[in-house]
Amino acid sequence: MTVVLAVCTGYGQACTNLIVGKKASADGSVIVSYSADDFGSFGYLRHWAAGKHAKGATRPVYNWENNNYAGEIEEAPETYNVIGNMNEYQLTITETTFGGRAELVDSTGLLDYGSLIYITLQRAKTAKEAIGVMTNLIDKYGYNSEGESFTIADKNEAWVMDLIGKGTGRKGAVWVAVRVPDDCICAHANQSRIRRFPLRDKENCLYSKDVISFAREKGYFKGKKDSDFSFADAYAPADFSALRFCEARVWSFFNRYVDGMEKYLPYASGENPQAEPMPLFVKPNRLLSVQDVKDMMRDHYEGTPLTLDNDPGMGPFEAPYRPTPLTWEVDGKMYFNERPISTQQSAFVMVAQMRSQLPDYVGGVLWFGCDDANMMAFTPVYCCTDLVPECYSDKVADDLHFSFKSAFWVCNWVSSIVYPRYSQLFGELKTVRDRLETDYNTLQEKTEKEAMALAGTEGEGMSAARKYLTAYTNRTAAGMLYEWMELGKRLMVKYIDGTVRPERDGQYARTPGGLGVPVERPGYPERYRREIVKATGDRFEVK
Predict the structure, then answer these.
(1) pLDDT digit string (tens) for 401-443?
(2) What is the catalytic activity of this protein (predicted)?
């Protein structure tokens, strides 16, 4: 029996990527988002400095998920500056894990999907070059992860590549990469989305020479014509969880910006797996800004049939979050919770902005934040940055050690205050979040003009521009951390023990003697009071 890995239903990494072509964006940017949604994972910003290396030099490889040493590979003669998931040439690579057929995992391969991403970012300048680097590395050293969807984008174009190994004893992988049209948007969220693809269009589609023949050999594809081959159907056939927990997130993005997407809901919801699947990419009904993509990463299916604000799971304070795991059992029957884009287990979320109309050092911006996108503010990290902001570093904390110097821990601290009383407290968080992001967006043009004025031509001016943008990156991150610390303190004081401290003119109200006035005790919202009475009758009626 063939086993298909159901990534979305477990505790493994389950992520979301949104993609916007440069002619689908409001300012000509190529835009890519990435949420690293992994329970227990520590969110921080990685950095590799540019360098030149002697012939014959090697470099160690460490597994991205468990940090175990995997082995050595030959080092490239020159490597590029990498900050997070973007390098100094604005190349960005992200991923979501689709799992696929379990028998195709090759545990003997040296490279996992994470090390593959970050090694490639150090070696490639463009998306197309990166595809070649990634697949050549896999052919040479082997691949040990499950099936992956990669977003590979630069300042001019974006590609999606679905890739899966060949099983133990078969080094390499089968894969297909499709270019996203410039005027379209695309997404993937833990389910392979490349189905049929053009076999003779090298400008827009690349694939391994055995992607179809290997599927025939394994019995995954029995069609008469190669043109009927579907990568997703062969290597990652979708079950209910792959649709409802994964494809539904893609549908929500498309539904926000494309008319008529309701026809795909029966498929994306898992209600009818035989219904028409969504296309890989679609043309939006308006141009998207970087802020639109940030806000989409905060989506909870609002305004759709999958919304999280109309069932008892939201609790008394209408939280658009649900406890995990996604599936649960009652009286022998399995049930599930919705899995939206925005989710509490995000370690970090980023939105990459890549612009061909600007020099690389200023054109590439990684809008970055730790924790759930809905519960934090994105700060700008320029691709020339060579000093990680302290609060985004792994030097001040880790997954087992809390620190108020760590953005991951401070943001999670504030989120954990807000989640239990979401409808009461979230407005306060949103006010600070939106104010910060508005400030950063407003300052962006001025900051970049000042950096370019410093740069002049290559030489000392360029170095000054990079230092300026690195300092700005660090300053905004530190400023965000300060604001979040103050927010956490305010929430603790104002909403202590389920109460609310009254305010007057922006200050806590005090008695003539200088003490705080009595706190308000709002109790349950009206809606929830009625639910209790409906469920319990006169049990709690005061006699």
Answers:
(1) 999 999 999 999 999 999 999 999 999 999 999 999 999 999 9
(2) an L-aminoacyl-L-amino acid + H2O = 2 an L-alpha-amino acid
One domain for residues 508 and 492: no
Q: Are residues 480 and 508 in the same domain?
A: no
Residues 294, 369, single domain; the answer is no
Distance, CA of 542 to CA of 147 (rounded, Å): 59
- For the record, the structure tokens of 56 come out as 């014959």
**Bridge partners for 163 per DSSP:** 148, 175
Residues with Cβ within 8 Å of 218's Cβ and at least 6 positions away in sequence, in order, are: none
Q: Which two structure tokens, joined as six digits, stand for 282? A: 């679609």
List phi, psi (to 5°) of 521: -125, 85
E-only strand ranges, 256-319? 281-282
The rounded distance, in Å, linking the Cα atoms of 512 and 258 is 58
The HSE-up count of residue 174 (CA atoms within 13 Å, CB side) is 26
| Angle formed by the axes of helices 127-141 and 113-121, nearest 10° | 130
- Assess whether 305 and 433 both reside in one domain: no
User: Tokens 């001016």 label which residue?
Assistant: 461
CB neighbourhood size of 412 (10 A) = 21
Helix, strand, coil percentages for the chain (3-state, nearest 5): 35, 20, 45
Question: Is 63 within a domain?
Answer: yes
Q: State how many domains the chain has.
A: 3
For the segment 516-524, the average pLDDT, to the nearest whole number, is 96
Count the alpha carbons within 13 Å of 312 in the hemisphere toward its beta carbon.
6
Same domain, 378 and 465: yes
Same domain, 134 and 267: yes
CA nearest to 235, candidates 11, 16, 2: 2
Split at pLDDT 50, 70, 90, the class of 4 is low
Q: Which one, of 130, 96, 46, 43, lies nearest residue 371 by Cα?
A: 43
Q: Which residues contact 185 (CB under 8 A, 6 or more apart)?
A: 18, 19, 20, 21, 24, 253, 254, 257, 258, 281, 282, 283, 284, 288
Structural domain span for residue 487:
358-498
Per the domain annotation, does 344 fall within a domain? no
Cα–Cα distance, 380 to 226 (Å, whole number): 45
Q: What is the mean pLDDT of residues 100-112?
A: 97
pLDDT tens string 300-343: 999 999 999 999 999 999 999 999 999 999 999 999 999 999 99
Q: Name which of 392, 402, 413 is nearest 478 in CA terms.
A: 392
Spatial neighbors of 309 by CB under 8 A, at least 6 apart, are: 300, 302, 318, 320
The 3 state secondary structure assigned to 369-432 is EECCHHHCCCEEEECCCCCCCHHHCCCCCECCECCCCCHHHHHHHHHHHHHHHHHHHHHHHHHH
Q: What are phi and psi of 352, to 5 degrees?
A: -90, 130
Identify whether residues 110 and 216 lie together within a single domain: yes
345 lies in some domain: no
Asked if residue 248 lies in contact with residue 339, where contact means CB atoms within 8 angstroms, the answer is yes
Q: Give pLDDT tens digits for 7-49.
A: 443 434 689 999 999 999 999 999 999 999 988 899 999 999 9
At position 341, the amino acid (one-letter code) is I
Per-residue confidence (pLDDT) for residue 11, from 0 to 100: 37
